[in-house]
Amino acid sequence: LAPPRAKRKTSQEEARKERDPKFALPAVEDLDAFQRQAVELVKPSHGTTTLGFIFQGGVIVAVDSRASQGSYVSSQTVKKVIEINPYLLGTMAGGAADCQFWQRNLGVQCKAYELEHKRRISVRAASKLLANTLYGYKGMGLSMGTMIAGWDTSGPGLYYVDSEGQRTKGKVFSVGSGSLYAYGVLDEGYRWDLTPEDAVELGRRAIYHATFRDAVSGGTVSVYHITEQGWTKVRGDDSADLHDLYYPNGTQHPTTVLQEA
Structure pTM? Predict the structure, then answer.
């Protein structure tokens, strides 16, 4: 039989690394400046359009489904609404991986809260959990601009939360590269006393116009309606089909009229 292999002696430095594993820092003089340059170098170009608003019949959340990598359209079928629980939704704008991971992490925290306190978490508390989590990673390269929308014992709720830890309560939000176009439609058509049908149509039309004007927004226009009974997905329409629906005669489109003038 071969003799047992002698155990390699482990130095104190190696033992310390085994107990406390860390990433080696770059060998540069100014680490902060290096990190800022590195973040700018790998900072992705992205685009999306998401919106949410509260009205007398609940909360409307509408999104597109296009993902981009710079000028390249990488997907037309991204699900930009994260279903946190039956009464709570989150939207994605920014880095897809960052939004998906941290909002699913929020779902775990919400479930833990429910198990501990024997009641469903409020929209306000859920948005605060996400804001606290993201604030701990402030300046580390996350790219997120999300909305947390839902219904709890105090009624409908809508919050904007981003990767800097900012958290804002509101009644009307639009986030993403196409948000200015969506705001134009929302500012014109939003009223508190909208019927559910009109509110759904307003959300759908706002996203459609953003997809028409913004090159990195597009794909499917999805609309969710949140009530006291929970959320329901009510619409899912291709943006090209909506163009034909709203402008069956191409000469009626404002851009065509301007060109002819």
Answer: 0.80
